[in-house]
Write a structure and sequence with these properties.
The chain has 178 residues and is α+β, with helices and mostly antiparallel strands. The protein contains three helices and eight strands; from the N terminus they run βαβββββββαα. It has a domain of 99 residues: Beta Barrel (Elongation Factor Tu (Ef-tu), domain 3).
Length: 178
């Protein structure tokens, strides 16, 4: 089957206002233990889960937000605009930047380094004020373009009988144990 697609052009619907100004640097391992790395990952994740951010939608598109406040959680799709072009060519990465982990295919990881750096985060909707959504738990950098917003519907988006690879499950358990 030939994959001959024309270019896809996306127009952002808004922008993210966040306290996260730069990507979290991944230490190269010099002078830092794997336990310290995992501790840093856990601290950063916990900080993000409680962080309050704003999603500012283009005022001309404000009507798109009607009735979103009836949902407790939303899925925010955004463009990882600070992923360098050379990182978009990677095919494999060390999960979470942990060098002791074998490299894995990009699509098997949550790495922002992707051919098309479209990321998604489920957030708690705290408040809507006209074209601005105040949310909790958004893992995006300040200035990230918003591509789309969808309601999170557990019965529709929550998978039943899902499986996570053993290596990812082990990695997340190790982060929790730190």
């Amino acid at each position: 089957m030939q994959m001959n697609f024309s270019e896809i052009v996306l127009k952002p619907v808004g922008v993210i206002r966040s306290k996260i100004k730069e990507p979290v640097p991944r230490p190269d391992g010099a002078g830092i233990t794997m336990k310290e790395k995992r501790k840093n990952v856990k601290a950063q994740r916990d900080k993000i889960r409680s962080m309050i951010s704003e999603i500012v939608i283009d005022p001309s598109l404000e009507e798109l937000l009607d009735d979103t406040d009836g949902h407790s959680h939303l899925m925010v799709l955004y463009w990882a605009h600070k992923v360098p072009s050379e990182s978009r060519k990677l095919t494999k990465v060390h999960p979470m930047g942990l060098k002791e982990m074998p490299k894995r295919g990009i699509f098997a990881t949550c790495s922002p380094a992707r051919p098309n750096p479209v990321l998604v985060t489920v957030v708690r909707l705290l408040k809507r004020d006209k074209n601005i959504l105040k949310v909790q738990g958004l893992e995006a950098l300040d200035g990230s373009p918003v591509i789309d917003i969808k309601p999170y519907v557990h019965g529709y988006h929550g998978a039943d009988n899902f499986k996570t690879s053993e290596w990812m499950e082990k990695m997340h358990n190790e982060v929790e144990e730190v």
